[in-house]
Amino acid sequence: LAGYIGEFFSLMLVSLVFGLVHWLSFSYFVFASVIGLYLGLLYIWTGDLIVPITTHAVYDFVALVYGTRYRPVQ
Description:
Order of helices and strands: HHHH
Distance between the termini: 47 Å
Low-confidence stretches: none
Helix content: over 70%
Radius of gyration: 15 Å
């Protein structure tokens, strides 16, 4: 994709798609798009896909632990 539209526009487009596939609400779309931008930048900076994958996995784990921590058991 970067070969067609350039690295900057590719990063913006992929970040928006990342936000869309994580859609829960508009505000979460914006948040997820920013996270997608950060993950994309991690890949560009390191050149290693394992870095953003690991970062995403750690975020998901923390969100799972803290997101379910204070919910009452039914």
